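Intended use. Records like the one below are meant for learning the mapping from a protein sequence to its folded structure. Do not use them to infer anything beyond what is encoded.
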Amino acid sequence: MVAEIYRQLAVFLVAGIGLYVAGVSRAQSDELQLSGKEPEAEIVSNIVAIAIPPQQIPLEKSEYVYKNGYQLKLLDKFSLHARVLSKRLYFGDERADIAPVDLAVGWGKLADPAILKYIQFRQNNRFLYWHVDEFPIPRKELESSATNIHMIPANGNIEKQAKSIKRGQVISLRGFLVDAKAGDNAVWPTSRSREDSGEGACEILYVNEIVVHDQ
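Structure written out for the chain above:
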């Protein structure tokens, strides 16, 4: 029995169970088209598998985007299909002007409502925390099946949809992992690893496509 456990979650590769939902609504941006092969979307006949971990492909050369006074260095193409575990809007912190939404997402067994009912999630100060009384799955598997994403919307439509996403929805995201450099030259670096944890382990995602799948 675990009385009180809070731990920051990071993203790792995991092979999970197969869960499927149908129907989609979509917002996307055509502002940025880069060379190279796009990560393959697991979307066939409006069916999305949320058992697979995020897909990531390094860019062959650095590309830059400028938004709200920040220089965004694009590092990797990134896509995922997952269930929303928690959402947090930020208004007053130092990064709210560039990343107004954080999404905590899970895949594999952490996309299964039968498992999630035993786990509590919360977000604060750009971190994701979890709590259980008893582990419904092994702790290592719990910790390796979720991540907290700092969302940088590519345009206003994507920002609007990101803010409207609800806990429990199944979503697909596509974009680029970025390092964000502010006007004072301070760099907010993204995680690029599936095996890190703690401070700096969250992904910073320049989002140019969101798909919300109907339940």
